Amino acid sequence: MKIKIARDELLTGLQRVQGIVEKRNTMPVLSNILLETKQDGVGLVATDLEIGIRGHYKAEVLQAGSVTLSARKLYEILKEVADGEVTFTTQENNWVQIQAGRSQFKIVGMAASEFPALPTIEREGRVAIPGSGLASLLRKTLFAVGDNDARYILNGLLITLLSSEKKITMKLVGTDGHRLAIAESELANAGTDLPKEVKAIIPRKAAQEMRRLLEEEEGEPLLGFTKNLVTFQKSGLYLTSRVMEGTYPNYQQVIPKESAKKAVIERAAMESALRRVAVLSKDKTNAVKLMLQAGTLTLHTSNPDLGEATEEVPAQYRGESLTTGFNARYILDALAVMDGESVTIEINSPLSPCLMKSDGDPGFLCVVMPMKI
Question: CA 17, CA 53: separation in Å to the nearest integer?
Answer without folding.
Answer: 7
